[in-house]
Amino acid sequence: MKKITEILNTYKYLIALISVFNFLLTPIHATISEMYPAHAVVLNYTLVILASSLIASRTKTRIRTHILGAVALVFIWLEFSKPGIQMIKAFRLASSFLLFSYFCFLLLQQLRKIEKINLQFILGPILGFIYLGIIGGILFETIHFIDPRSFHLRGDYSGYVFYYFSFISITTVGYGDVTPLTPQAQSITLVMNIIGQFYLAIVIAVFVGKYINVKSK
């Protein structure tokens, strides 16, 4: 048991990173397995929460993470089993936002304490960037939940499209297939664009600075 715990602690960022990439590939999984898309989303989202909970290392942070994760999972599965109930969806969005914001907070705390270049320092910023995209997806989904006229969506609608739009927003790609229409949706899109660019600039600067410090010692 102790050996398993050590392995999980050593590769916690890698495990979490694999889980979030797995979530991003949900449409491909649904196509290959012929699984109903909603089933694939719920299962992969659950894996993301379980794997990301490994990031918490201290007892107090682990307890908070498990509580937030359990609450989010309850509402995710409730929404899956009882679709169409608006109150459940609202609680799912709120609990998911709090959970992934807390994941980002823990990640930043841990990365700040890392003094040498190792696997965690390399994978951590990548994981943080994907968490940022997921938080953006939750925000866009929330805006659409409050006002369904917030976005112009081409093709079939699914909740996954907001996570897709979040990532093309923070990378400032913009294909034009999803368009924010209301001022609220446009403002959140601008904020995500700015945060995405500053995140990349700051992470690269910190990475280079720590690399130089390690080499100079």
TrEMBL record:
Query: Which keywords label this protein?
Result: Membrane, Transmembrane, Transmembrane helix
Q: What is this protein called?
A: Ion channel
Q: Which organism is it from?
A: Aquimarina amphilecti
Q: Which Gene3D superfamilies match?
A: 1.10.287.70
Q: Which residues cross the membrane?
A: 12-30, 36-56, 63-78, 90-108, 120-140, 160-178, 190-212
Give start and end of each Potassium channel domain.
158-208
